[in-house]
Amino acid sequence: DVFGERPERASTAQSCHMKNPMRWMGAACGRLFGARRTKFLKIVPEFTEQEHKRTSAGRLLYLFYKVAVPFWRTNRAARWNTAFVIVLMLLNTGFNVAMSFCAREFWNTLSDRDVDRFYLVTYMYLLITLLSDPVYVYYNYCRNVLSTSLRQFLCGSMLDMYYEHRNYYVIEAARKVDNPDQRLSEDVKGFAEMSIMLISHGLTSLLDVVAFSYILITIYPPLFAFLIVYAVVGTGATYFIGRQLILLEFQNLASEADLRFSLMRVRTNAESIAFYRGEAREEYNNRKMLFIAIENDLNVFRWQRNLDYFVQLYTYLVQVLPVVVLAPRYFAGQTSTGSLQQAWAAFNSVLRDLSFIVMRFDEVSKMSAGLDRLGEFIEFLESRTSPDRPSPFAEPAKRARRRERRERKERKERKRIRTSATDAGDAKDVDVEQQDDTASVVSSVMSTGLASEQAVGAEISVVEDETVSLETQELALFPPDDPSRVLFRGLSMQLPPDARLLIVGPSGCGKSSLLRALAGLWRSGSGTIRISPLAGAFFLPQRPYCTLGSLREQLTYPRELSDITPDALQAAVARMDADFPNKTTATTASSSTSSSGSTATATVPPTPSDEPFSEALDRLLEHTLVQVSLPLLSSRMGGLSTVRDWSAVLSLGEQQRLAFGRLLVSQALGFCRLSILDESTSALDLTSEANVYGLLRPPFVSVGHRPSLLRFHTALLRLSPDGAAPVLSTITDEQRAVAMRAEVSIS
Question: To 10 degrees, what angle do helices 221-268 and 361-382 make?
Fold first, then answer.
């Protein structure tokens, strides 16, 4: 535990830290001012050598090139917008130089007491100010628009990769990348804004250096040479002192994301926590995340304090240097007051521009931390991209070939060094080390007892075939994160087109895992799965998912309305009218009554070919709600277009019935060819269960524990907890009779 306490002790309200939160805050503040460390806030950041390599300037520059440059390389509009921003930047710099000369003449006229020239310079200064103001404002506006375009490009490209090959599921299952939601939102936004700002300020500084350096050189060249050396030394010292800030900022982003996630979990699971009366434990967990975030903030503040010591001294140490150096020339009459003032302004302007990294290292460190997180996220997504759809962040072919040649040259050099070591008599040590490594690998594989099935690279082959419903050949499965545990092996079966398969077995034997393999989510194992195209397979999980949107979108999920063809809808409505003429008419009349507030006469439904698309679809959806025993849901919620948080509004039983309605709509419109259900009736009573199963069209595969499910299936697949081969059998009438007696006794 990060606070040095046992969770069971700290989870009760009797804990002194829970009873007195100010004591916690006092301890945190005490650390800020150097007070004694308390044991429950002793979190000292220790970074490995690998973590320090992440802050190297070369890696950060490479990540910046990889993440940001494709925005300009692939987007012509971005290049034009950037060129326009640079033009505005040049104009802005030109106005700044003009103001510098006006300021020099302003002081010269005051020194010479030239009244006429003084007012002329004043008018010129006002004119330049009026002309430069809209340029400066529009320059900032265009820069912000450019950063928004960069954010749109980055987030859009990463979202494409995030949803490709179900990477969003792999990330959650593998737990290799934390908080992808923050990386896609806050990290992308922060990087886009900060990078455009730093690039624009960097280019502005470069232009200012060119412009004001000329002024400084014409007045006194040695000042410029000293300034260059001073800025280079200061930048190197700042990077050396503040490099740790990048890692601390990375840690800070992660801790803030963890805190937000812990608070979001309470909101998502509020009812369960309330039933458990787990407020004390959840408050403890939230406080734990809070003070980890506070500790990271304090560590950042300490390093910023150390850096500020140097930056403040660096900034103010030489500000008066140009006046001190030019004072003898001024007293000798060799330099005017205006030139002295202009030299001072040019010196400090060039110093500020050359010290760009020094002055903005805090912002650079924050951007670098966000860039590191984005780079890590993109590299993981790129590792799962298909060759036919390369990553938008991939290197150009020419640059990739150069990198491959460089890596090939490095490999040859390493091989030459090993050969030299062999000639020198060191080969024996190398062979012994390699043998030890090989022995350890063989030992780790053999220790599982499954070397034949779980060799490195073993993967289930999933073949989508329109000629079969479901077929498996010598299928073996084990969890991706625990290859030593075999869930089952040797599963071979073939389902006919009208199959109704029920999968049973003790908890933890791999029933839901088998469904994950059928869906293509898990590939860890061996064997072959032949299944009808996964686009036509419909999966119903035990905990239904309610998407953001209207009730209409809940029933058509995951399809868009544009995916529904008029012909498919007309055929579905025609079958509905033929199979349920009375119910369809009653549904139409009921819908008309609820929408108008008056009783409508039941009439014969219109011909599907003459009915508008939206009305036909709504009539099909209303009828589906009646089928799954939710006849009043639409009218109670205000219609099919009503948008609610359906996971919070509906009970679990209502959500499961709504999910069955979604499946029925998908079957009616021809999208579903195989239904796979994972304990999808666990929250339904036996009558509702019989109703929804009676509406399904085979083939379908179910997972469940209830004996009543035997009535709705023709085959039984029994899994065992010892990893043995599953047993496939036909469900007999006797088994159904036993299930019916059990159902009667329960009811």
Answer: 50
Q: How far apart are CA 474 and CA 433, in angstroms?
A: 38
Structure confidence at residue 655 (pLDDT): 92
DSSP one-letter code for 557: T
**Quick check: 628 and 657 in contact, CB under 8 A?**
yes
643-690 pLDDT tens trace: 998 988 898 899 999 999 999 999 999 999 889 999 999 889 888 999
- Quote the pLDDT of residue 593: 37
Contacts of 699 (CB under 8 A, 6+ apart): 469, 470, 495, 496, 497, 498, 499, 500, 501, 674, 675
Question: DSSP secondary-structure letter at 562?
Answer: G
* Claim: this prediction has a pTM higher than 0.85: no
Q: How many C-beta atoms lie closer than 10 Å to residue 257's C-beta?
A: 21
Reduced DSSP (H G I as helix, E B as strand, rest coil) percent helix, strand, coil of the chain, to 5: 65, 10, 25
Q: Which amino acid is at 404?
A: E
**Per-residue DSSP letters for 458-520?**
---EEEE-TT-SEEEEEEEE--TT-TT---EEEEEEEE-TT-EEEEE-STTSSHHHHHHHHTT
Evaluate whether 720 touches 491 at the Cβ level (below 8 Å). no
Handedness of CA 242, 247, 250, 255 (dihedral sign): negative
197 closest CA partner among 68, 315, 94: 68
Torsion of CA 646, 648, 654, 658, to 10 degrees: 20
Q: Could you give the strand order of the β-sheet that contains 715-718, starting from the edge strand earlier in sequence?
A: 537-540, 674-678, 700-703, 500-504, 715-718, 727-730
Token code pair at residue 423: 């000639």
* Dihedral angle of Cα 731, 737, 743, 745, to the nearest 10 degrees: -150
Q: What is the pLDDT of residue 153?
A: 92
436 forms bridges with which residues in the sheet?
A: none
Q: Which residue has the higher pLDDT, 22 or 223?
A: 223
Mean pLDDT of 419-428: 52
CB neighbours (10 Å) of residue 121?
Answer: 21
Residue 645 backbone phi and psi in degrees, to 5: -85, 90
pLDDT tens track for 449-471 = 333 334 444 688 888 888 888 89
